[in-house]
Design goal:
By secondary structure, the protein is an alpha+beta fold. Helices cover about 35% and strands about 20% of the residues. It is built from four helices and five strands; from the N terminus they run βααββαββα. Helix 1 runs antiparallel to helix 2. The longest helix has 22 residues, at about 35-55. The N and C termini lie far apart (about 35 Å).
């Protein structure tokens, strides 16, 4: 196995280019023999981040670019996605899990990214997200992870 060097892609804000980038990233993760749950987690988070960059950051403007830089090795996947937009403050997004926000469409994608990645961070401007998935970090839906969550103190 071993490390792969960092790969950088710059592409227009189009769904077709986004899907090409996602496929390339997923193939790189599979090449490192990550399990199906990790591949799913990476695909979900990267798809969401690139979609947000195109829709919200670049406002669907096909003349604006999305920059994706990623590296994957046998220990972790790391990916930064940058758009040409004005940025945002993630802390200002409403919590999509609160009753009053259940019908609102904003914030769910970032919640998904945070649920499936080991780390999710944004630059100060708010136009770049960095996703990290450590290979040894269990994803939601992983049977062992689910069992850990359902154990309570005093139960075996």
């Amino acid at each position: 196995m071993g490390a792969t060097s960092a790969i950088s892609m710059v592409f227009p804000s189009t769904p077709e280019d986004a899907q090409r980038a996602i496929r390339q990233i997923v193939e790189s993760v599979k090449a490192q023999r990550y399990d199906d749950a990790a591949v799913f987690a990476v695909r979900l988070a990267v798809d969401e981040a690139i979609t947000n960059a195109i829709r919200h950051g670049n406002r669907g403007d096909r003349s604006k670019k999305v920059t994706v830089e990623y590296a994957v090795d046998d220990r972790q996947f790391r990916c930064s996605i940058t758009d040409e937009g004005e940025g945002f403050r993630p802390q200002d997004l409403p919590d999509p899990t609160l009753d009053e926000n259940l019908e609102r469409p904003s914030g769910r994608g970032i919640l998904l990214m945070r649920s499936y990645m080991t780390e999710v961070s944004f630059n100060e401007k708010g136009n770049r997200v960095t996703l990290i998935k450590r290979r040894d970090c269990r994803a939601p839906g992983d049977r062992a992870h689910a069992q850990e969550l359902t154990k309570s103190p005093g139960r075996g």
